[in-house]
Amino acid sequence: MSDIKFSDDAMKRYDQTLKRYPEKRAALIQILILAQKEFGWISEEVADYVGGLMGYSPADVMSVASFYTMLHRKPVGKYHLDICRTLSCWLLGTYPCVDEMKRILGVDKEEITGDGMFSWNFTECLGSCGTAPTMQVNDRFFESLKPEKMGDIIEQLRSEAAEGKK
Question: Can you list the domains of the chain with their CATH numbers?
């Protein structure tokens, strides 16, 4: 028996989310995002719980979770940096930014810093080609990245964490 269960607040958001969709299946991605916020990542136990709530098998839930890069199937840091590597971002400097970020954080993709604060991975198009390269950190976007800006962004996130902000 798993201890995975939505908090009362998350359960209210679950119910509200289902009401916004004419068909329950259409809400699955939003419910998985809710579950990820609640539990940190989409484990097999989380997939089993969500599937049980919605009437789907864990395999069905994981098939959706494994398709979308914003849904994490393993633990990530408090701040997860998704860095776009599609053509516009690549041509305008994603990889020099990644090199600088790796130097500062000391971790490779899909690894978590020792303090649990940061992890990163590549993602496909973030839909911001006009302001490439682009990075999404949790729910926020950072655009027009340059290697020299990476340290400032990471320090900003560290400061926010110290102040108790998300």
Answer: 8-65 (1.10.10.1590), 79-162 (3.40.30.10)
